[in-house]
Amino acid sequence: ETGKFTYDPGFMSTASCRSAITYIDGDAGVLMYRGYPIEQLAKNSNFLEVSYLLMNGELPNQAEFAKFEHEVTHHTMMHEAFRTFLYGFRHDAHPMAMMTGMLGSLAAFYHGDLDLEDPEQRRLAAIRLLAKVPTIAAACYRYSIGWPIRYPRNNLEYVERFLHMMFEVPSEPLVMKPVAARALDLLFILHADHEQNASTSTVRLVGSTGANPYACVAAGIAALWGPAHGGANEAVLEMLKEIGRPENVGSAIEKAKDKNSGFRLMGFGHRVYKNFDPRAKIIREMCHQVLGELGVNDPLLEVAMKLEEAALKDEYFIQRKLYPNVDFYSGIIYKALGIPTEMFTVMFAIARTAGWVSHWLEQQVDPENKIGRPRQIYTGAVSRDYTPIAQR
Ligand code: SDX
User: Fold this and answer.
1) Residues in the active site (predicted)?
2) Quick check: CB of 232 below 6 Å from ligand 1?
3) For residue 69, how far is the Cα from the chain centroid?
4) φ, ψ for residue 65, nearest 5 deg
5) Residue 274 CB less than 6 A away from ligand 1
6) Which atom of ligand 1 is nearest to the CA of 274?
7) Which of 5, 162, 206, 252 is most buried, judging by how many CB atoms fall within 10 Å of its CB?
């Protein structure tokens, strides 16, 4: 009611940080960016406006948005030296491996002129990351398929510019269906931030040491790559392809319940949500609309719907409060947009860069920001005396 949240001291002693950016209620399935429910932002906003909101705490007015969009648009280019770095990778390296390296190279490139004490320089670094990550992502993809890299076109909006860099071929102009750009923009909004998830916590831990933001985001990308985190959207598609047909869903459910199988339903379960992930609900509805407007009939969508239906009725999943999460349906839309499976987690990284830079900016001005030092429970040997090797 007062617009302020209060926590019992016990909780505060275990919390890793304070933040005003994103609020999640896992039991109620609530997600808010700076107090705005994700459902309202998904319906009314766009990714660049949401990025401004996450970074600055308020929605921009028209003049503020125009300035922000101009700044981001005019920082999308990569220095030509990055081509040499990119071309040093094996062409078939996983795009997330390339992204980790490329973001680290941004740290090397910009480190020299970055004064972290200067708020304007910090803001510029955040703008550069938001602007350049799509350019780098598209360049990694083009390099991996042997196509020439495409320069960002400043007359396009953020998502259209990215799709153009990804798919434009010299022989014919890219015909982009508006539904494709809108669908990707919406997926970017839904993936933009998510409180203290593994990759954002990684960014904050690295940031707490005073490392520059490019190195922080490179660390965040590395953390996001794992199949238990952002890599899950790629793993969901592999899982659905392996299940293959709706009639095979029952055996997949039984396999996921067998601890010895080592098989988990990818895209199911969550550290925080013990109810529906609100993002999964929005993406599931999007699936039908986007595939319908694109005229795509993907049999994997039916497999996913049957798998969800069977899991939600199964005692094992009900007892453990396992619901579809943000990754369960997103891959089906990425696939319909022509984005290859190995680029799914890169999509997640592009969107989450907005959250990562926002948390980094917030941390830099937090008077209580100390170097991170997660606690451990020691389970090793008790104190004992050294014995010479001849006596071992
Ligand atoms: C993201 O943190 C975030 O906010 C992350 C994220 C974001 O936006 O940043 O939301 C993005 O990472 C979403 C999660 C994507 N990952 C997956 O979909 C991978 C599949 N899911 C799981 O591996 C798992 O659910 C996790 C990793 C997401 C959560 O793992 P936990 O915390 O270990 O799950 P848990 O301890 O709450 O599990 C409770 C039980 C366990 O069984 P029991 O030991 O109690 O018998 O449920 C089981 C688990 O084995 N379980 C599953 C399962 N997930 C948990 N069993 C089958 N299939 C699953 N997917």
Assistant:
1) 270, 327
2) yes
3) 21
4) -65, -40
5) no
6) 37
7) 162
